[in-house]
Specification:
Bound molecules: glutamic acid
Distance between the termini: 60 Å
Order of helices and strands: HEHEHHEHHEEEEHEHEHHHHHHHHHHHHH
Strand order of the largest sheet: 3-4-7
Number of strands: 9
Radius of gyration: 26 Å
Helix content: 40-55%
Structural class: mainly alpha
Length: 500
């Protein structure tokens, strides 16, 4: 561990070049929180002449969703946050995907076992449940593993493991004393009692590492000097510090940034705000505005500077200018920044920007293919295509058609549509968001929820286009894009909830 915050702040201009990283898990659409953390890592690396690493933490097989690694690359590229080392660009400390580093974790666990810093645990799920139940009943201040297998003779444990008995490997956390670490964004050191720290699992019974083990091993072997991550990981840091100690490694310097919040100060959540970077991209926010907005959330150049650029942030970067007090991600403010930036462009620039995405030729051609059969004059095209653009649509003309499906109340229909919106976000088949994938998924959804396709599809059509008649529903949805569809479906969910 390093000594105090000053020593580390000075690292901005002195000492070996910092190596920082982001370590997202590919579990869904790239979150604005990931982009926010990436921005600070990127800025710090650029300020110090250091290296910005992208590592993919993909060892949690249950939460993994196909395509989301590519989505992370795409989102960060869109924002212009280029990394120096990563799975796609390579680098001297690779591989940069945890799933390609499994032998290393096993090797390092063997080191801890040999040192007696870790032990094999053969407890069954049932026993662990029993222990937990008892701890809750006793209102025990210490929840977690009771250390039952600490006493198993190591030679015996090896024999049992070799005989194929299912087991995990746990860290032998000291039972006494305290451990502390410095978070360089907070004035007081963070002190914790060791007895309150669980003997965390390092290697699961399937041989995969846990987040804690893989994260620490990788940060060490990738030479990470500064861990700059979100505050939600601060409760994991004691475990990491104990692990560094068990290995006998120097821990990196820790900086936990404040979590992005909704306007009501609750943790930014998709219930209240769109959180996917792609939502903002697809609805026509400018990438540089988005970055600039995020920079302005957690960094300040003094009260008199209302807005600054990322280049200015790099120029003036200093940890003392970073605030940790729950930055509010206010979409209205982002929108006003975006409007300012659009206003500041020349018409030529604007025209160019429109052609990049909104009026990209391939996108326009896909729309024209849908509209060709339905318009009579060239001049009709633009008004006909209007629902392919913009965020929410006006439901006033079709209000009386927005009604519950047969056999369900308004609220139940709202929940059904809400589930649909959540599933198109999660479902791997629909991830690519193509018309055939959407159609197959939607038909299966109707079957599963015992709802007539005709009725659900009409509701979807109304939600996505605001019209009773439109081109093929699934082509329309595919061209509109996932985020636009989801936003509109959610608008209808909110309306249906108000119906009996
Ligand atoms: N895989 C973690 C995540 O999804 C990494 C957290 C960290 O930076 O240590 O954000």
């Amino acid at each position: 561990m390093r000594e105090g915050s000053d020593a580390v702040s000075n690292a901005i201009s002195e000492g070996p070049k910092p190596r920082v990283r982001i370590a997202p898990s590919p579990t869904g659409d790239p979150h604005v929180g990931t982009a926010y953390i990436a921005l600070f890592n990127y800025v710090f690396a650029r300020k110090t002449g250091g290296t910005f690493v992208l590592r993919i933490e993909d060892t949690d097989q249950e939460r993994y969703t196909a395509g989301s690694e590519a989505a992370i690359f795409e989102a960060l590229h869109w924002l212009g946050l280029q990394w120096d080392e990563g799975p796609d660009v390579g680098g001297p400390r690779g591989p940069y995907r945890q799933s390609e580093r499994l032998p290393l974790y096993r090797e390092q666990v063997a080191v801890l076992l040999a040192k007696g810093e870790a032990y094999r645990c053969f407890c069954t799920r049932d026993r662990l449940d029993e222990v937990r139940k008892q701890q809750l009943a006793d209102k025990s201040p210490v929840l977690g593993y009771d250390g039952h297998c600490r006493a198993v003779d190591p030679a015996d444990a090896v024999r049992r493991a070799e005989a194929g008995e299912a087991h995990v490997v746990r860290l032998r956390v000291p039972r006494e004393g305290v451990t502390s670490f410095v978070d360089h964004l907070r004035s007081e050191p963070i002190v914790f009692e060791n007895r309150l720290v669980d003997d965390q699992v390092l290697l699961k019974s399937d041989g995969f590492p846990t987040y804690h083990l893989a994260n620490v091993v990788d940060d060490h072997f990738m030479g990470i000097t500064h861990v700059i991550r979100g505050e939600e990981w601060i409760t994991s840091t004691p475990k990491h510090v104990l692990l560094y100690r068990a290995f006998g490694w120097e821990a990196p310097a820790f900086y936990h940034l404040g979590l992005l919040r909704n306007a009501d100060k609750s943790k930014l959540s998709k219930r209240k705000n769109p959180v996917s970077v792609f939502h903002y991209r697809d609805l026509g926010y400018l990438p540089e505005t988005m970055l600039n907005f995020m920079a302005n959330l957690g960094f300040s150049l003094g009260a008199e500077v209302e807005r600054f650029t990322v280049a200015q942030m790099i120029e003036h970067f200093d940890w003392s200018k970073v605030s940790v007090g729950g930055p509010v991600f206010d979409p209205a403010k982002l929108e006003s920044f975006n409007a300012d930036d659009i206003r500041a462009m020349s018409v030529d620039q604007l025209y160019e920007r429109l052609q990049e995405r909104v009026l990209a030729p391939a996108r326009i051609k896909a729309m024209l293919a849908q509209a060709q059969e339905r318009v009579h004059r060239l001049d009709d095209f633009i008004p006909y295509l209007s629902f392919f653009f913009g965020g929410s649509v006006d439901y006033a003309p079709v209000r009386d058609k927005l009604k519950p499906v047969s056999g369900k109340s308004g609220k139940e229909t709202a929940e059904l549509l809400d589930t649909y919106a959540q599933e198109i976000e999660r479902d791997n088949a629909a991830r690519s968001f193509t018309a055939p994938a959407l159609e197959a998924f939607s038909r299966e959804f109707c079957q599963r929820h015992a709802v007539k396709p005709k009725e659900l599809f009409m509701l979807l059509r109304l939600a996505v286009t605001g019209r009773t008649a439109s081109p093929s529903l699934f082509d329309t949805m595919a061209i509109c894009g996932k985020d636009r569809c989801r936003t509109r479906i959610r608008d209808v969910v909110v309306y249906l909830r108000t119906l009996a």
